[in-house]
Amino acid sequence: MFDATQRTVASFMLLSYIMDIQKIFGIDWLSVEWKDLRKPLYSAIGARLYIQYKCLLSRTYKDIIPRSIERQAEFWRLYYRLDGDEQNFVARANEYENRECCM
């Protein structure tokens, strides 16, 4: 997944996002290495770039990540975790939303 965000085609498709990352965070994404993903911010940026890349390829979601948990589960399985269990995703997301710490 990480490598996909740095390939020539992907980096061209993600260029505006990569430039924003450079401007806002001072991170040159094309120079990031696998070991840098131990930093939570880098890991989150990598995951988001990968999702954006998959959205651009599919042209189904474009820039829109669904709001409902059920649609997020479908999105997650289609574009991020092909062998993912949507029902488990929904159950765990609902558990998280119902925790007192999150309200």
Total of DSSP H or I helical runs spanning 4+ residues = 5
Structural class: mainly alpha
How many DSSP E strands?
0
Query: pLDDT below 50 for ≥5 consecutive residues: which ranges?
Result: none
Number of domains: 2
How large is the share of residues in beta strands? under 5%
Assign an overall shape. globular
Order of helices and strands: HHHHH
Largest sheet: none
Proportion of residues in helical segments: 55-70%
Q: Kindly provide the radius of gyration, computed on alpha-carbon positions and rounded to a whole number of angstroms.
A: 15 Å
Average residue-wise pLDDT = 85
* Intertermini distance: 32 Å
Features:
103 residues, mainly alpha, 2 domains
Short description:
This protein is an all-alpha fold and 103 residues long. Helices cover 57% and strands 0% of the residues.
Describe the model.
By secondary structure, this protein is mostly helical. It has two domains: 3-58, no CATH class; 69-102, no CATH class. The chain contains five helices and no strands. It has helices spanning 8-13, 15-25, 40-58, 69-79, 86-97. Helix 4 (69-79) crosses helix 5 (86-97). The mean pLDDT is 85.
